[in-house]
Fold this sequence. Notes:
CATH topology: Rossmann fold
Bound molecules: S-adenosylmethionine
CATH architecture: 3-Layer(aba) Sandwich
Low-confidence stretches: none
Number of helices: 6
Mean pLDDT: 97
Radius of gyration: 16 Å
Amino acid sequence: xxxxxxxxxxxxxxxxxxxxxxxxxxxxxxxxxxxxxxxxxxxxxxxxxxxxxxxxxxxxxxxxxxxxxxxxxxxxxxxxxxxxxxxxxxxxxxxxxxxxxxxxxxxxxxxxxxxxxxxxxxxxxxxxxxxxxxxxxxxxxxxxxxxxxxxxxxxxxxxxxxxxxxxxxxxxxxxxxxxxxxxxxxxxxxxxxx
Length: 194
Ligand SMILES: C[S@@+](CC[C@H](N)C(=O)[O-])C[C@H]1O[C@@H](n2cnc3c(N)ncnc32)[C@H](O)[C@@H]1O
C-alpha cells in the first residue's frame, strides 16, 4: 500500500505530469481559505495525486475526477483506495470534453488536454453556480507561452499560442473575476464566476 509520498515519488519517477509541488500547495491553500468549497470536479486525474491532496484539506470535500487514459484510471482507483478515500473521490473514465453530469460544483479544476481548455470551460459552465471557481494549470506551459524560443518544436509552439489565446480570453471574460498567477505551479489562473 502506497503512502501519499510514495504516490508522488512514483509519479515523478514514471514521468506522470502531476502538478508541481508549489501548485499543489497553492490549490490546497485556496481550498483551505474557502470553506464553502465542498464539491469539486477535476478534469485530468492522472494517478489521483492532486485529487487526494484536495480531498485531504477537509473531510466534507467530495470529488468527481475525469481521466481518459485507462492505465491512469486503474492506478488512480488503487491509489485513492490506499488512501481510504474511495467514498469521497470518484474516478470517471471518460474524455473530459464529454463527461456529462447534473451535479453543480464549487470548484472546477482543469488539468487535462491544454488545447481543450476553452472547450472544457464552456462544457462545464452548466455545472457551475455564481461563485464557482475554475482553476487552470499549465497556462505558462513550461515558460514557452511567454517565450516561444524555449521550444524548437513547431507543434509545441502552436500549442503555446493556443494557450496564450485562452489565457488572454479568460482574463477579459466578463463572466468571471479572473487572476493569473505566472509564478504558481506551471502558471495558474483562478476564475470566479460572477
Ligand atoms: C497534467 S496530468 C494531471 C495531473 C493531476 N491533476 C495531478 O496533478 O495529480 C493530465 C492528465 O489529463 C489526462 N488527459 C489528457 N487528455 C484528456 C482528456 N481529453 N480527457 C480527460 N483526461 C485527459 C492525461 O491522461 C493526464 O493523466
